[in-house]
Design goal:
Rossmann fold; alpha/beta; 9 strands; nine-stranded mixed beta sheet
């Protein structure tokens, strides 16, 4: 399996996603957009993963590579290949498919529960409630034809699915202890007082069991995206 990762800043890597891919012998390619790496041809990959970042999906005037990145995402989706977007990556999927990305009424930074919602039989199903790590100030409308998969008190569109093999996650299931530390170091100015913004100590004090639960759920998402869809006849 040839998997290509789109990374927007040095401090937001694939985390647990990388471990899952390595364990399955995937050949992983990278576009480090912050370093000016070229984007791949869509016919040279089997799966696309778009990571997070502090920029906005709307920043095309200052970050012109966003246009080409969205074009690649759209082309991969049209080819019915698996696509996973995390935080900014989910917003880029939404934008690439014509949906609006905009400032969220409430920023969400910290460990807050997410709730799975009822979905069609063909779609991925999250548990009724599960722990997740959040760091976002923007949200999005659902693209045409998308199915909402999860919500939280601060954000109605926490996860969505398009067709069989495209999932966008506003929250971070891939986060590791090192990933949280890196976000606190590089984006600590975001930690202002707010109803859904936790302190540095709260962010960094999550027990190992919480990470393990998130990673197990992420493994389920990745397995779903990469397995063959059920046959219909």
């Amino acid at each position: 399996m040839r998997v290509h990762v789109l990374q927007h800043v040095p401090f937001e890597g694939p985390g647990r996603i990388g471990d899952w891919l390595e364990a399955r012998g995937a050949r992983v390619g990278w576009t480090r957009l912050f370093a000016g790496d070229p984007l791949p041809a869509p016919d040279g990959i089997d799966m696309l993963v778009a990571m997070g970042g502090p920029m906005s999906a709307n920043d095309e005037a200052t970050l012109p590579w966003l246009k080409d990145e969205k074009r690649l995402i759209r082309e991969v989706i049209v080819r019915d290949l698996p696509v996973l977007g995390v935080c900014l990556g989910a917003q880029l999927i939404a934008s690439a498919l014509g949906a609006r990305v905009y400032r969220s009424p409430v920023a969400e930074i910290g460990w807050f529960p997410v709730r799975g919602v009822a979905t069609p039989d063909w779609a991925f199903r999250f548990p009724p409630e599960f722990p997740a790590f959040h760091w976002h100030g923007e949200t999005f409308d659902l693209p045409d034809g998308a199915v909402r998969l999860a919500r939280s008190d601060a954000c109605e569109h926490q996860a969505f699915q398009v067709k069989r093999h495209v999932i966008g996650l506003q929250f971070h299931l891939e986060t590791t202890v090192e990933g949280v530390d890196a976000l606190v170091e590089h984006c600590g100015d975001d930690l202002v007082e707010g109803s859904h913004i936790q302190t540095r100590d709260e962010l960094k004090s999550a027990p190992a069991a919480r990470y393990a639960a998130m990673h197990a759920l992420l493994d389920g998402v990745l397995g779903y995206l990469t397995e063959a869809p059920p046959r219909t006849c």
